[in-house]
């Protein structure tokens, strides 16, 4: 199976996924797609010799532009890893249960519009949560509202800064996201 990873920024998850699937018999990363030319994820992809494409918001939202591009890379699964554009409905329909996202909180808490990156960790801190974590979910029409596949938690003492929480979350993501993706790919019937 071929995986396209969609990114907008740093790309640490993207790189973990590339590394993980370099040794997998079930799938390979065939494309890194970014809506930002300056995403560091693109540098990481090139280092691993993975094809990259940069697309505008307009290109991404146009059926007859984005679908042929994904087909060019024989895309079976779309993995979101810090991708900040909304996924258009036609893509969600075409790739039903084949688009997976990771969110850096225990959804449904701290999800939805505006809840991304450090905003999430600051909100978790302000709410004085006793735990936080990550959620891997299918992508549907509702922002952060798709069916939950897996969650992993980490306790909070209250003394962590938002930056500390971000680091804890990245560790959880590194440990779990690639393996959860691999299990989904293995267990998905066509
Ligand atoms: C991750 O925390 C992920 O949960 C969220 O965006 C962040 C991306 O980080 N969706 P990176 O670009 O993979 O370093």
Verbal overview:
- The chain has a single domain, classed as Rossmann fold.
- 38% of the residues lie in helices and 22% in strands.
- The radius of gyration is 16 Å and the shape is globular.
- The longest helix is centred in the last third of the chain and has 26 residues, at 162-187.
- The protein has 190 residues and is α/β, with parallel strands linked by helices.
- Strand 1 (2-7), helix 1 (12-21) and strand 2 (28-34) form a beta-alpha-beta unit.
- It has a seven-stranded mixed beta sheet with strand order 3-2-1-4-5-6-7, covered by helices on one side.
- The chain has helices at 12-21, 40-47, 57-60, 63-72, 89-94, 118-126, 162-187, and strands at 2-7, 28-34, 52-54, 77-80, 99-103, 131-138, 148-155.
- Bound molecules: 5-O-phosphono-beta-D-ribofuranosylamine (GRF).
- 5-O-phosphono-beta-D-ribofuranosylamine is lined by residues 9-14, 81-82, 102-104, 169, 173.
- It is an enzyme of class 2 (transferase).
Keywords:
binds 5-O-phosphono-beta-D-ribofuranosylamine; 38% helix; 7 strands; transferase; EC 2.1.2.2; globular; alpha/beta; Rossmann fold; 190 residues
